Amino acid sequence: MIHRKVVICLFFGLLIGCAEVDNQPVTDVPQVTFDEQIIVMEKAYDVMKTLENREMTDLGEFVHPKKGLLFSPYGTVDKKRAQVFMPDQLKDLLSSKKQIEWGTEAGKGDPIRLEPEDYYKTYVYDVAFIETDFVTYNDYYKETNSIQNVTEAFPDSNYVEFFVPGSDEFEGMDWKSLKLVFTSYKGEPYLTGIVHDQWTP
Questions:
Q1: How far apart are CA 198 and CA 33, in angstroms?
Q2: d(CA 112, CA 98)
Q3: Which is it for strands 188-198 and 69-72: parallel, antiparallel or unpaired?
Q4: How is the chain split among helix, strand and coil, in percent rounded to 5?
């Protein structure tokens, strides 16, 4: 687990670093205590480490025991079509060869039917999110033409976005982000959503 002092330094550093990105955070930040922010930020970095290492059993320990974990391929969360897994279902998820419908493909509307392994590589940890310097709390960097409805889809929750800017080669359009959503249960924040986002037509 990341030490508290390290997270505090990261948190302040990221707030200062926001000024270096062309697209500033664009949502209103709910009123939460600073201690709560630090705890959620710690959890977010710990979760991101499990995602980087594909430690699904460890990931399950962070997941809300009642609500489970929702996977959304895009920033517009469709709770009617998104997949939700309970903690004990994550252990063997990536070894499953069953094709699952995870939502609809942006711009086309075609169903996203993928084995969990392929979904993970495409819509969960598809870039090195753990290495980004651009991390926000209850906020996001990139204004898009899609509806950002994380706060509506996960009421009474907080989220941390890990944003990876796009390259000059593609004029920044190959940016990616991953929002980790946390909801309180018995006084502790638990992971309830992994919301991937990227440029959509």
A1: 30
A2: 13
A3: parallel
A4: 30, 25, 45
What tokens were used for 124? 């969960």
SS3 79: coil
Contacts for 110-118: CB closer than 8 Å, 24+ residues apart: 112/73
Name the residue among 115, 116, 135 with its Cα closest to residue 177.
135
- Rounded-to-integer distance, Cα 179 and Cα 198, Å: 11
3-class secondary structure, 132: coil
Distances (CA, A) of 91 to 85, 102, 178: 10, 18, 21
Q: What is the pTM of this model?
A: 0.84
Per-residue pLDDT tens digits for 84-131: 999 999 999 999 999 999 999 987 889 999 999 999 999 999 999 999
Residues paired with 52 in a beta bridge: none
Beta strand pairing call for 157-164 and 134-137: antiparallel
Q: Which residues of 89-101 are buried (b: 16+ CB within 10 A; e: fewer)?
A: bbeebbeeeeebe
Q: What residues form DSSP beta bridges with 157?
A: 183
- Name the residue among 86, 43, 73, 78 with its Cα closest to residue 182: 43
User: Which tens digit of pLDDT belongs to each residue from 69-95?
Assistant: 999 999 999 999 999 999 999 999 999
Helix (H, G, I), strand (E, B) or coil at 87: helix
